[in-house]
Design goal:
Elements (H helix, E strand, L loop, with lengths): L13 H15 L4 E4 L1 H8 L8 E5 L7 E5 L4 E2 L5 E3 L3 H14 L9 E6 L5 E7 L6 E3 L4 E4 L5 H4 L2 H9 L1
Length: about 170
């Protein structure tokens, strides 16, 4: 028997089920995702620049954690990603840094991904060892791509640097 402070709720109540569905649908609304893709990987590995795409990286200059290209129909809302006027030579240096920096990492390896909106439309491409991030695509074709949360897998950055020097 419930205590006097408990509010009895019928688990089959249609109002509760409807409320939960509304919450779930609202939360699922504008979130996109990354999908591993052989062609996207090839684009980065061959240092190809997609026409019209705007390119960004996250991480220290010349030592990115991730590189992404955003389709020309979309605009990126960011204060954390750095836009770069990409040439084939600059892309080669960025991709080679990611590959070299992760050469001894047997668990995570650099790969190419498509950035998709909530309906599965491609809004960009991504290259990193990080295979997930938060992607939000708004109705006006503005997108937000959060930086990958990398420190949870390998400890903090200082700890990773010490491990790599051993």
């Amino acid at each position: 028997m419930p205590g006097k402070d408990c509010i009895p709720i019928k688990t089959g109540s249609p109002h509760i089920i409807i409320a939960l569905l509304i919450i779930l649908i609202g939360c699922a609304g504008n979130y996109g995702r990354l999908v591993r893709d052989y062609e996207a990987n090839k684009i980065f590995k061959n240092y190809q620049i997609r026409p019209g795409h705007r390119y960004y990286y996250i991480g220290p200059q010349g030592r990115p954690d991730a590189i992404m290209g955003i389709h020309p129909d979309y605009s990126l809302e960011t204060t954390q990603w750095t836009q770069i006027d990409l040439t084939e030579d600059k892309l080669k240096k960025l991709v080679d840094w990611i590959n070299f920096h992760n050469r001894n990492n047997t668990r995570y390896y650099p790969d190419g991904f498509l950035i998709l909106d909530h309906d599965g439309r491609q809004v960009g491409i991504w290259y990193s060892i990080w295979d997930w991030t938060t992607v939000i695509v708004e109705e006006n074709k503005r997108i937000m791509v959060y930086p990958p949360l990398k420190d949870h897998r390998f400890g903090n950055a200082d700890e990773r640097e010490r491990m790599q020097r051993r």
